[in-house]
Design brief:
2 copies of one chain form a homodimer. By secondary structure, the first copy, chain A, is of the alpha/beta class. Chain A is built from 12 helices and 14 strands. Chain A has one domain: Ribokinase (UDP-N-acetylmuramoyl-L-alanine:D-glutamate ligase, 3-Layer(aba) Sandwich), CATH 3.40.1190.20. In chain A, strand 7 and strand 8 form a beta hairpin.
């Protein structure tokens, strides 16, 4: 069967507002270093007024992965909700300029386009304060046979479960995918998100997903484990393909009894860890969609993650090419 | 007399949209490398749709200088026109977060906030395609004793002369400044801008300005010279303070018979030359406002310019400090 595109992402469409801050700033706003906190519009105004000069770039976890996948030369489409405002224009432009097919028109009313205030400390760690705005209005009605189509793979993110109709629309997308011969993948987003929706994620991983991408904290939150060997032992039983990133410890790929370890690449300086996991997913899924071995997929993921942590922002600069692929 | 702030900038308030491009892209849109072209809203839409993924950051030549001046620890205020849209919010936020006093409210109608598409090629050179939007609506009526106040120095940019009421409002600002005991400085913006307004600039430099900041091309356009010694010989006669930047040849400060040469600092790689002149002006004027020698002023300018060309974007990262000042 012919797939219209290789990858379709369904996720929160967010513009990142990045600024360098002192650890004392995080303390002053009560944000634990490395955390992702959802905030409302008033809180967003307040934190922005306290922040230093910022840089704006398109973001959003799975949106970053889709952009990275397209940047590598893959074909991709995207479902997410922006408002028809200047930040929405920026988000859609950055996707479309990489050839990503935007499947929903920008909303003409409702909340403004989402933004995530990304506060970066000297060690490259990022703390996120996210106002979801228009993302919260992504609805079950937006997920149809027409908008989903028949991609080789759909990719959902855990954060979608924070949307009122999110769990239902994720299920619907998975069902459409199955009927169309598409595979289904899920990114677990972050460990707090996993804790918020553990039962629903457990069900989705068991019954809907073919591939799960996650970092080690997220996997532990899902499985209630605290070391990688216990986690892997539990993953074997699912029979699904798991790609688990472990920061400087590399990554591990598990599918049934198959286990592939990939080491991380040492970098001189982490400029900004934003998007490391998203970039890994882009490389990994690009390998998968092109029929590469698990080991090659893990190498592609590592190459992309290594690149993105040495620059400001969550998306790899245009034009990264992977040896032996393109 | 007590000045309310050290520096008041009056200029085009612009958000930069930065993207890396191939030289072939410049060719395809008919833009000479290194040029600054004014475009209308339709052309802006067209070029943006052809550009790759971008990064958005506050910009504008003299606005960058004001931000840099405040970043160094100087007190500053700003007059420029944005619309009350998301890009206008970004522009004002970035200024205010550095402590800059914004003197005009955002317009509630009219054209959207200005943006400059900055196309950066591999050698770090930038080519600008600028849509002035709301900037063109800066009016004579916006320049009053209340909005100008009594700063130690006002700084205008040549680009203001591209606004319908620009020449008149520049004259009015200079007059208010004189009456308030403020000094007046002018940045010549770019050589094409000087060619567009040479007679008016000549008059302003002779009769209104105390300080002129410019690069060598701009000075040659103003004086109709083609080598630095001829230019300096002509500048002597004006009796004003000139700071002329010469890229890798450093800079030269001229006031009457006084001539101070400052060498450039060698850098390993120019990431993005955007804002080099603006950053130089920030350092130079910061030194001047703090009573430093011409040589020290030139050193401060060089330090700021050296910093900004090694990063993406026109504004120095927060927190640069100059040795011996702060």
């Amino acid at each position: 069967m012919t797939h219209s595109v290789q990858l379709l992402g369904i996720s929160n469409a967010i513009v990142d507002v990045l600024a360098n801050v002192d650890p004392a700033f995080l303390d002053s706003i009560g944000a634990p270093p490395g955390s992702m906190t959802l905030i409302d519009q008033e809180q967003a105004r307040d934190i922005y007024s306290k922040m230093g000069p910022a840089t704006e770039m398109s973001g959003g976890s799975v949106a970053n992965t889709v952009a990275g996948f397209a940047n590598l030369g893959g074909t991709a489409a995207y479902i997410g909700k922006v408002r028809n405002d200047q930040l929405g224009d920026i988000f859609n432009h950055d996707m479309q300029s990489l050839g990503v097919d935007i499947r929903l028109p920008a909303a003409t009313d409702g909340a403004p386009t989402a933004r995530s205030h990304i506060l970066i400390t000297g060690d490259g760690q990022r703390t996120m304060q996210t106002y979801l705005g228009a993302c919260l209005e992504l609805a079950l009605a937006d997920i149809t046979a027409a908008t989903v189509g028949n991609p080789q793979l759909i990719l959902l993110e855990g954060y979608v479960w924070d949307i009122a109709e999110g769990p239902a629309l994720a299920k619907k997308a998975a069902e459409i995918a199955r009927n169309n011969g598409s595979s289904v993948s899920l990114s677990l987003s972050d460990s707090y998100c996993v804790e918020r929706h553990r039962d629903s994620f457990e069900d989705f991983v068991r019954n809907d997903a073919d591939i799960v991408v996650a970092d080690e904290d997220e996997i532990h939150a899902l499985l209630d484990t605290d070391n990688i060997d216990d986690a892997v032992a539990k993953l074997v039983d699912y029979g699904k393909l798991f790609a688990v990133t472990r920061s400087e410890k590399g990554s591990v790929i598990v599918q049934g009894d198959t286990r592939v370890e990939q080491s991380a690449t040492r970098v001189e300086k982490v400029v900004d860890s934003t998007g490391a996991g998203d970039a890994y997913s882009a490389g990994f899924l690009f390998g998968w969609a092109n029929g590469k071995t698990f080991s090659e997929c893990a190498q592609y993921g590592t190459t992309c993650a290594t690149k993105v942590i040495q620059q400001l922002g969550a998306r790899i600069e245009k034009g990264l090419r992977l040896e032996g692929v393109n």
